[in-house]
Amino acid sequence: MQEINVQYVAELARIRLTEEEETRFGGQLSQILEYVDKLNQLDVEGIDPMTHAVPLVNVTRKDEVQPSLSNELALKNAPASLNGLFKVPKIVE
Amino acid sequence: MEYEIVIGLETHVQLKTRSKMWCGCVNQFGGEPNTHVCPVCLGFPGVLPVANEEALRLTVLTGMLLNCGLPKRAKFDRKNYFYPDASKNYQITQYDLPSTLKGCVEFESENKTCRVGITRAHLEEDVGKSSHFDRVSGVDFNRAGVPLLEIVSEPEITSVQMASDYLNELKTILIYGGISDCDMEKGMVRCDLNLSTRPVGQKELGKKVEIKNMNSFSGARKALTYEMNRQIKVLRNGGALIQETRRWDDAEGMTHSMRSKEMAHDYRYLPEPDLMPFEPETAWYDSIRESVVELPLARKRRYMKDYGLPPKDTETLVSNPSLAGYFEKAAEHSKKPKAVANLILNNLRACMSESNHSVDDLKIQPTHIHELVQLVDSGKINSRIAQEVFNAVYESGKSPQGIVEEKGLAQVSDSSTIDAFCDEVIKANPKSVEDFQAGKQNALNFLKGQVMRLSKGKANPALVGQVLEKRILNP
Ligand SMILES: [Zn+2]
After folding, report:
1. Nearest chain A Cα distance for residue B83, angstroms
2. CB-based contact B18 A82, cutoff 8 Å
3. Closest Cα of chain B to A86: distance in Å?
4. Ligand 1 (single-atom ion) residues, CB below 5 Å
5. Which ipTM was obtained for this model?
6. Looking at the 3D structure of chain A, how many domains does it have?
7. What are B465-468's contacts with CB under 8 Å, separation 24+?
8. CATH for B415-473, among 1.10.10.410, 3.90.1150.10, 3.10.129.10, 2.170.270.10?
9. Could you count the other beta carbons within 10 Å of the beta carbon of residue B24?
10. CA distance B162 to chain A (A)
11. With contacts defined as CB-CB under 8 Å, which chain B residues touch A89?
12. How far apart are the CA of A5 and the nearest CA of chain B, in angstroms?
């Protein structure tokens, strides 16, 4: 059984969990890890790690400018805005 | 005990592309806030980034200019963190398989040739820009997603001066290669400084202190100097340093520990699932290799060797690529490249800064400079008149020869004319003539000046001197 520091993971994800949730998710995450751990039983000697399952490389686009959104449209979904900016809680340096 | 410092630098440079890294928004400084944005660079759900081929090309070109290895396979990764200026809550960067690896920069510092290793130059994206108000902050994402190259040096820099020379050389190389405009005012270059101190003779590095986000080289210099002195003082007093991030406060001229606010970083890098890896073909590398330009240091050495220019003049030219290009065109067929350089460094630069012109705006052409030097060299005009001709060509873009003819500025070397001028001056200044006969050399200079004035500056000064001397001493 793998131990997971659920509090730490929750902090990294910026979410707050109740004690009950912490226990429940902890169990679930351990199960997932255990499942993934099955891969460790495979012999992968001499096999290159891959980051994608699709054998595709060098996907690029030409350096061409396309129209952008208007400021109004860009901010339309923002919970709050100010002088054309996305308004956020005060950032402390 | 004596101490020494070790510096490593991470330099972030915005690439000179038309569009952003993953979307078609314009890569352009300024603009009304949040008008160069789209669903991709705003990090909306469901969008897909597509890599800008020009940014990849410029990255590889930088690798070539910095003598880097070019791995067969490169990929992008997500660096996860929460900060309001990161629209996606992660930054796309290259973690374990960067596009370039292990190179070096060669430059001159304190009269020595130095070489600093480059760990890697990898491609990532810039983040948004935040403004701070009384109780809230605001974010403008115009800059988010602009291609950003991070150039990491090895910890091999051993003085503040060397760090400064490294940064300037790097900047010049990037401008030469057309990689970036490196406009500091527009925030196109920023750097993180790593500095540690150790007793001389100790092999292991001292505790690393990182100072992040310097946006000027002069600021970097000041921060490094301050930090060096601080660290040495702590060690001298028997204290211990810790590995930490410090912030440079330009107004106070000090660094401050950021320890209290900083949580241990855990970026949880993972391969960017939305971008396929890159396995460039040889032909692509070959086509980029054609854009490799002569490096500034090589150019500097060539100017000194081929044109016999002094180091200081060479440096001034080389650090300004457009002026250097102008000089080369002017000096190409000249027998007097030094005179060409002087005109460019003194007259041309003075006029340019006075009228706020860049090389592209100039009416005066490199061939004009060459012609002007020839006119002086052949005795057609004297060097004082050359200044007048220069100014006229600068203003009008007409040829120097044409100006000389139009204004009748050709040097007067005709002996009967000069004789007549000299006679007139001798007659009008009996006192000075006497003085000169009595051995006062200054008196001759005065008389010479009078003749030049009478000739409106056009007389051949050497000839005037000879004639005066002959006529006064052996009348
Ligand atoms: Zn965009």
Report:
1. 9
2. no
3. 5
4. B 23, 25, 38, 40-41
5. 0.89
6. 1
7. B467/B415, B467/B418, B467/B419, B467/B422, B468/B422, B468/B425, B468/B426, B468/B444
8. 1.10.10.410
9. 20
10. 30
11. 84, 136-137
12. 14
Binary contact (B35, A71; C-beta < 8 A): yes
SS3 of residue A1 by DSSP: coil
Kindly report the average pLDDT of chain A as a whole number. Answer: 89
The residue range of the domain holding A15 is 6-40
Q: What is the pLDDT of residues B2-57, one digit of tens each?
A: 999 999 999 999 999 999 999 999 999 989 999 999 999 999 999 999 999 999 99
User: In chain B, which segments carry CATH 1.10.10.410?
Assistant: 415-473
Question: Is residue A87 one of the residues assigned to a domain?
Answer: no
pLDDT tens across B89-98, in order? 999 999 999 9
**Between chain A and chain B, how many beta carbons pairs sit less than 8 Å apart?**
129
pLDDT tier at A93 (50, 70, 90 boundaries)? low
The answer to whether A63 contacts chain B (CB < 8 Å) is yes
The residues, any chain, with a CB within 8 Å of residue A39's CB and separated by 6 or more, are none
Strands, E assignment, chain A:
60-61, 81-82, 85-89
CA–CA dist B169, B156 (Å, integer): 15
Residue whose pair of structure tokens reads 């469901």 in the numeric block: B46
Q: Which of A7, A50, A65 to mutate to test the interface with B (most CBs of B within 10 A)?
A: A65
Q: What does the pLDDT look like over A18-33, one tens digit per residue? A: 999 999 999 999 999 8
Identify the segments of chain B with pLDDT beneath 50.
Answer: 260-261
Amino acid at residue number B117: G
Q: Is residue A15 part of a domain?
A: yes
C-beta atoms of B278 and A62 within 8 A: no
